[in-house]
Design goal:
This protein has a single domain, classed as Alpha/Beta hydrolase fold, catalytic domain (Rossmann fold), CATH 3.40.50.1820. 37% of the residues lie in helices and 17% in strands. The protein has an 8-stranded mixed β-sheet with strand order 1-4-6-5-7-8-9-10, sandwiched between helices. A two-stranded antiparallel sheet has the order 2-3.
Length: 283
């Protein structure tokens, strides 16, 4: 057998070995204060079930304090690389650091998406390409099923002044809708890379369903997210300003070189939380 043939045979065996082994398994990256609630929640109006993830602050187990709450979408992308589609937000690590540096602590509720229905659940407006709107039913599920359970079983500050909603992309769109449509529930919204393109109805809705003047809106997007994303976000910024929403309660941030991905949202998360809850920046 020639030397070249021997080398080719060795390489073939090595390649077959790699195929047999498959890709390395992901390991969990979530911290010890994250848990998946023990059963799936029923979504009454949609006849579906949904996984809910829970982050509790570091001091929760050793205190009797009550905490503000952030409700976030795409729960499987927030805490754990093992469940995330394209990298996690690192919400738990970021909040643990914020607690250590600033003493600010918050509960986070992550509502998983159902990949098949994600686009329709995260919009209250129909889109001809993606189908009927199910965002109203999805938000009713959060407000009428998830929030009452969380407020009953955990030590929350349940009033609107201590309750926020946050998400990215389609999650940004439904967060924009949520803070406008449920002013008695939410007083803060983290609106990351919002998919205003999905339906131009968002602009008419925002005009006629004005958000409360004390509501804090943190809208963030990246330079590299496309001209449509930037143009629509600028349009919303102008509209809110024209409608008279106080400038001290709105923050539109354009991130240089930011792309539409978890890295951008992870990087901006801590600043958004601090601003929404009016915390001084941590250095």
């Amino acid at each position: 057998m020639s030397k070249k043939l021997i080398i080719r045979s060795i390489l073939l065996i090595f390649a077959l070995f790699l195929c047999a082994c498959g890709e390395p398994e992901k390991t969990s990256t979530s911290t010890g204060n994250v848990q998946v609630l023990p059963y799936q929640f029923i979504m009454p109006e949609l006849d579906r079930q949904r996984i809910i993830r829970l982050y509790l602050p570091p001091s929760y187990q050793d205190s009797d304090k009550r905490y503000p709450v952030i409700y976030m979408h795409d729960g499987q992308n927030l805490f754990d690389d093992m469940t995330a589609l394209a990298g996690e937000w690192g919400v738990d690590e970021s909040l643990n650091q914020l607690a250590a540096k600033m003493g600010f602590e918050v509960i986070v509720i992550g509502i998983d998406n159902a990949a098949k229905f994600r686009m329709t659940e995260l919009s209250p407006w129909e889109n001809k390409r993606f189908g009927e709107a199910q965002g109203k039913q999805y938000m009713n599920f959060i407000v009428e099923v998830v929030k009452p359970y969380i407020d009953t079983n955990f030590r929350t500050k349940a009033d609107r002044l201590h309750t926020a909603i946050m998400g990215s992309s389609m999650g940004g769109l439904i967060s924009h809708y949520g803070v406008h449509a449920y002013p008695e529930v939410f007083s803060k919204a983290g609106i990351f890379s919002p998919s205003y393109w999905y339906s131009q109805d968002v602009f008419a809705f925002t005009q006629f369903q004005k958000v409360r003047l004390d509501a804090r809106l943190y809208v963030m997007y990246g330079d590299n997210e496309g001209n449509g994303m930037i143009a629509d976000t600028h349009k919303m910024q102008r509209q809110l300003r024209h409608q008279g929403h106080p400038r001290q309660n709105t923050l539109f941030k354009r991130v240089p070189n930011g792309e539409h991905n978890e890295q951008l949202w992870r990087t901006e998360f801590t600043e958004a939380v601090q601003w929404l809850f009016q915390q001084e920046p941590a250095f």
